[in-house]
C-alpha cells in the first residue's frame, strides 16, 4: 500500500510536467520584458570594438565613402553587418567620420548627390539635407545632425567604433 | 521599413512619409530536386536585393511580408489572390506599390494593375558569396533604386 502511495500516477506526472512547462513559459514571458527594459545594452555592436577603415594619410578634405564590417549582436542574432562612413578632414584639421543614416527616418544619405546642393549631404527620400559637417539644415525633415563615429588613430591608421549622437 | 515591431510602430507614427510598399513575390516548388534548388537560390537572391534596397530607402519604403506561391506555368491562377493581397495592403495610404520578383511570368498579368513590376534577373546556379555575383547585385540594386526614385520624382 505504502508502495502505491509513492508511485506517481500518470495524471500527477502530467500535472507536474505541465506546471513545469508553465513555469518555463512564464520565464519566457518575463525574459523579453527584461530584454526590452535593458534593450540598449543587448543591442548593437559589441562595445569597445574599433575597426580599421583607412590610413590617415588617405583622408582628404572631400568626404570619402568607406565600408567596413562589424559584428553586431541584435537580441537573438549575432551577425556581420556592413557599416558605411563618410570620412574627411574638417577645416580645423580634425577627422570626422559621419554615419550615412538619415536622422529623419533612416534612409541612406549621399554626399553631393544633388546638383543643386554640391556641398551638402542629401537624402533622396524626403530631400533631407545636412551641411558638410553633418548639421541638419533647417526647413528639411531631419531634426538632428548625422551621427558621428567614435574613432582612434593608431600608427597612422584610422579605426572606427560606434556611431554616436552628437 | 520591414514588417517587424520596431519598424511598424515607427511607420504608424510617420505614415505620410512612408508612401511606398514593396511586395516580394516568391515562387517555390518541391516537385523536382532541381527546381527546389533553383527556386531557393532565387528566393535568397530576391531577399538580398530587397534587404539592400530597404537599407538605402528605409525611411520611405515598407517591405510587406512575402507573397509565396507554388511555381506554376499557369500563373494566371494567381492573379485573383495577388489582387486581393494588393487591395489589402492598400488599406494603408500607400501611393506607390512595387512588386519585386525573380519570376518574369508576372509581367503579362500585372499589366492592367496599378502596380510596378520589378523583375530581378537571376543566376541559374552558383554561389551568392562570389565577388562577381555581389558586384552584379550591387549594380542592379542601384538601378532598381533609381527606378523607384524616378517614380517618386515624376
Ligand atoms: S529619411 Fe531622410 S529626409 Fe526623410
From TrEMBL, chain A:
* Database matches in CDD domains: Rieske
Q: Which domain of life is it from?
A: Bacteria
Any one GO molecular function term: metal ion binding
Q: Give every Rieske domain span.
A: 87-160
The cofactor(s) it depends on are:
[2Fe-2S] cluster
Gene3D superfamilies from the UniProt entry: Rieske [2Fe-2S] iron-sulphur domain (2.102.10.10)
Q: Name one GO cellular component term.
A: membrane
What residue ranges are annotated as transmembrane?
Answer: 13-38
Q: What does this protein do?
A: Component of the menaquinol:cytochrome c reductase complex. The Rieske protein is a high potential 2Fe-2S protein.
What's the subunit arrangement here? The main subunits of the menaquinol:cytochrome c complex are a Rieske-type iron-sulfur protein (QcrA), a cytochrome b (QcrB) and a cytochrome c (QcrC).
PANTHER family the record matches: CYTOCHROME B-C1 COMPLEX SUBUNIT RIESKE, MITOCHONDRIAL (PTHR10134)
Query: Under which name does UniProt file this protein?
Result: Menaquinol:cytochrome c reductase iron-sulfur subunit
Whose protein is this, by species? Filobacillus milosensis
TrEMBL record, chain B:
A Pfam family matched by this chain, by name? DUF2487
From the Swiss-Prot or TrEMBL record, give the protein name: DUF2487 family protein
Q: What lineage is on file?
A: Bacteria, Bacillati, Bacillota, Bacilli, Bacillales
Say which domain of life the source belongs to.
Answer: Bacteria
Q: Which organism is it from?
A: Filobacillus milosensis
Amino acid at each position: 500500500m505504502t508502495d502505491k502511495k509513492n508511485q506517481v500516477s500518470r495524471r500527477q506526472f502530467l500535472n507536474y510536467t505541465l506546471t513545469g512547462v508553465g513555469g518555463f513559459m512564464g520565464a519566457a514571458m518575463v525574459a523579453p520584458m527584461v530584454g526590452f527594459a535593458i534593450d540598449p545594452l543587448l543591442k548593437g555592436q559589441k562595445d569597445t570594438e574599433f575597426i580599421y577603415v583607412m590610413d590617415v594619410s588617405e583622408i582628404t578634405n572631400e568626404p570619402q565613402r568607406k565600408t567596413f564590417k562589424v559584428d553586431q549582436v541584435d537580441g537573438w542574432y549575432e551577425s556581420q553587418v556592413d557599416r558605411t562612413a563618410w570620412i574627411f578632414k574638417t577645416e580645423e584639421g580634425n577627422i570626422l567620420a559621419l554615419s550615412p543614416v538619415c536622422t529623419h527616418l533612416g534612409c541612406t544619405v549621399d554626399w553631393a548627390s544633388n546638383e543643386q546642393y554640391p556641398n551638402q549631404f542629401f537624402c533622396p527620400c524626403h530631400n533631407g539635407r545636412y551641411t558638410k559637417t553633418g548639421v541638419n539644415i533647417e526647413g528639411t525633415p531631419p531634426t538632428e545632425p548625422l551621427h558621428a563615429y567614435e574613432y582612434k588613430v593608431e600608427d597612422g591608421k584610422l579605426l572606427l567604433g560606434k556611431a554616436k549622437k552628437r | 521599413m520591414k514588417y517587424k515591431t520596431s519598424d511598424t510602430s515607427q511607420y504608424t507614427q510617420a505614415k505620410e512619409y512612408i508612401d511606398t510598399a514593396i511586395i516580394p513575390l516568391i515562387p517555390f516548388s518541391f516537385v523536382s530536386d532541381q527546381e527546389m534548388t533553383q527556386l531557393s537560390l532565387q528566393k535568397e537572391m530576391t531577399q538580398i536585393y530587397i534587404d539592400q534596397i530597404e537599407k538605402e530607402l528605409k525611411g520611405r519604403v515598407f517591405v510587406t511580408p512575402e507573397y509565396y506561391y507554388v511555381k506554376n506555368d499557369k500563373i494566371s491562377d494567381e492573379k485573383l489572390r495577388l489582387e486581393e493581397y494588393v487591395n489589402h495592403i492598400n488599406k494603408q495610404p500607400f501611393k506607390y506599390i512595387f512588386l519585386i520578383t525573380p519570376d518574369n511570368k508576372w509581367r503579362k498579368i500585372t499589366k492592367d494593375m496599378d502596380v510596378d513590376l520589378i523583375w530581378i534577373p537571376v543566376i541559374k546556379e552558383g554561389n551568392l558569396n562570389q565577388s562577381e555575383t555581389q558586384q552584379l547585385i550591387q549594380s542592379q540594386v542601384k538601378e532598381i533604386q533609381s527606378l523607384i526614385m524616378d517614380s517618386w520624382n515624376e
